[in-house]
Amino acid sequence: MKKILILGAGLVSRPGVRYLLKQPDISVAVASRTVSKAEKLVEGYKNGAAFPLNVKDEEKLVQFVKQSDIVVSLLPWVYHVKVAKLCLELGKDMATTSYVNDEMQALDNEVKGKKLLFLNEMGVDPGIDHMSAMKIIDDVHREEGKVLHFYSYCGGLPAPEDNDNPFGYKFSWSPKGVVLASRNSAQFLEDGDIINIDGKELFSNYRVEEIKGLGKFEVYPNRDSVPYKELYGLKDALTVMRGTYRYPGWCDTLKAIVDIGLVDDTLQENLTGKSYVEMMAEITNVTELNDVISTTAEKLGIGTDSDIIRRLEWLGLFSDDRLPDLNNYLDILCYRMQEKLFYREGEKDMIILRHKFTVENSDKSRDLITSTLIDYGIPYGDTSMARTVSLPLAIGVKLMAEGKIPLMGVHIPNVKKIYQPVLTELENLNIKMIEKKSKV
User: Of 78, 90, 258, nearest to 179 (Cα)?
Assistant: First the structure.
């Protein structure tokens, strides 16, 4: 029986843990700082066990890894390399859903030397996006065609029927990571030119795309897309762009939030006991509280009746509500967003993932190929985010346990030996990309 150690029991972990618990010849140990969360994940399964663990407890972490065959890190990404180095030392395979950073990639030769597999980027984005894109890219190349333009967009959003707030967004965990996207610069290749976008201008550089049956969405570029030209073998591509979907209004509003100074995490010493409107007065250098809205609008170059001001007002940034006991604008903003932008019991989230390929065939004719996943959460059950993140990971771990991924080193799922069986099993779980082709 293969022993799987899962580090972390966060909000996306349940579907993947339960999938592994249902497999024969696999036992699952879930170790979490909050052991009650781990206990809920394995409840009712004889082959599951829950343990308390603080990942900073080196001695205890070593003991857990020693007793395992495969280690799955669902910890915050900053801990992955620490776990990876321990797996390397103790000769254990490993899997994560996170991006491979330089430190992880640097372990590749040592991992190969020990004949181990560290499988990363096994979520939805990154994860299903790699696998579904590579399936089509490999098919095109096998038919001696060329991918000339490649766009890949993904977003986690409220389902349309539960999209009921002015921001068009809801958080199922801390909003800080989403808000901090405003600091990320972006780079992509389009029509042969490399386009660079500074972080401060990220939300000014969005485009609008319509998805049949769902309406229009904003798309802003996602970090650095240029390496994917090589990573995906797109040697003929003139365009390689990855982006993030949001409902209309999000980008302009986040740009305003950035411009007004609300993503500043500099320590502020004079916020204790103040209200939100007093904080905004401080940010906008206003002495009269009645002037805060008009001054904010003026600084942003918009009207006081604009949708952006309406959203900020709905969020409560101009209210007399007392500030939380936090010492910087960014944390206060995130606290307020988490208070207001949340999923109520029984509401559904939605994952949209779409690739668009312009393909030149061997006879010089051209096709537009789209590959689209639209997945919804289960009311009072698992979210779509949890399913699409943790199930690809769990399937990959199962294949590793069965010895069905004949690879060594640090890998992502951009090769057929990984993506084909994982996509097939995801379809069995009703997570399926729908492909369409038309002539250009």
Answer: 258
Sign of the CA dihedral running 59, 63, 69, 72: negative
Which residue out of 57, 108, 125, 265 is catalytically annotated? Answer: 125
Give CA torsion, residues 254, 257, 263, 269, to 10 deg: -160
What is the spatial distance between Cα 87 and Cα 122, in angstroms, rounded to a whole number? 18
Closest Cα partner for 317 from 231, 234, 257, 267?
Answer: 257
Tokens of 224: 């650095």
By DSSP bridging, strand 186-190 and strand 215-221 are unpaired
* Cα gap 93→119, rounded to integer Å: 8
* Residue-range domains of the chain with CATH: 2-119 (3.40.50.720), 128-252+345-382+433-439 (3.30.360.10), 267-327 (no CATH)
Strand-pair category, 349-360 with 366-376 = antiparallel
If one counts every other C-beta atom within 10 angstroms of the C-beta of residue 440, the result is 11
Provide the 8-state DSSP code for 175. Answer: S
CB 6 within 8 Å of CB 35: no
Pseudo-torsion of CA 84, 90, 92, 95, nearest 10°? -10
| Helix boundaries (H) for 232-291 | 250-260, 276-284
Contact in structure between 198 and 388 (CB atoms under 8 Å): no
Is-catalytic flag, 129?
no
CA distance 279 to 273: 10
Which of 344, 357, 269, 283 minimizes the C-alpha distance to 318? 283
Choose among 279, 309, 315: nearest CA to 293: 309
Output the tens digit of pLDDT for each of the chain's 440 residues: 999 999 999 989 999 999 999 999 999 999 999 999 999 999 999 999 999 999 999 999 999 999 999 999 999 889 999 999 999 999 999 999 999 999 999 999 999 999 999 999 999 999 999 999 999 999 999 999 999 999 999 999 999 999 999 999 999 777 888 888 878 899 999 999 999 999 889 999 999 999 999 999 999 999 999 999 999 999 999 999 999 999 999 999 999 999 999 999 999 988 999 999 999 999 999 999 999 999 999 999 999 999 999 999 999 999 999 999 999 999 999 999 999 999 999 999 999 999 999 999 999 999 999 999 999 999 999 999 999 999 999 999 999 999 999 999 999 999 999 999 999 999 999 999 999 999 99
